[in-house]
């Protein structure tokens, strides 16, 4: 079996590529190293093909069995700084879908729980996204275009709406890393964590290994559609801070400030019913265990990211 992983030098993509290699796939990685790093796939570097190109280059690639599209600008602040990333993300996605149709291969791509901004939990795939954010508009447009390609050309796809993915290998993402990684870094550096508001906002923490499981299950399934990838349990920022302090064994400095962001995502909490019943995916890793694994990884780094 052959696979392409766009963004395969990044946080999520490198973990997917590693799992694929371990399962015997021939893997090609396309990545411009925007928030990725070759060190992320160093354990499999002699077993994969790496191309320093963006996702549009996929049209030049030989036929594979499945494409994992992770090479998408992946953080709300990126889009707020440069909203032209919306059309860039869609333009590259069109090339990816065109390749998959031409080569009749399954497409699994990253979407986001930010799509549910403005809705009370739990968040179900049937909710109609509200207009809230450039990042969200890009991801939702991609989902709609995938459905259109399915109707028009028979594209086989799974769009996975990730909920607050955290874990090891986020250091190259720097300020765009998940809050869990950022808080761990602050704790290791004995620096202050800034929290917007009173810390009551909530996140459904999903470990990177569960996310990889979801991608592989989606790739091997005959299902087409949109699926949540979360745990079905959310924690407040204050609760997350407490869990991290327990793991690292010390208090972390906190500073609460007024939230300066418009249309801020207050809470994400996955309804996992559809993913369990139709896709066969259930997250397995508890937050406490995932945080411990992430901490054990980051404390061994030669240089802890000092992002602010």
TrEMBL record:
- List the Pfam families hit by this protein, alphabetically: Epimerase
InterPro entries the UniProt entry points to = Epimerase_deHydtase, Lipid_A_modif_metabolic_enz, NAD(P)-bd_dom_sf
Per UniProt, residues of the NAD-dependent epimerase/dehydratase domain are: 4-230
Q: What is the designated name of this protein?
A: NAD-dependent epimerase/dehydratase
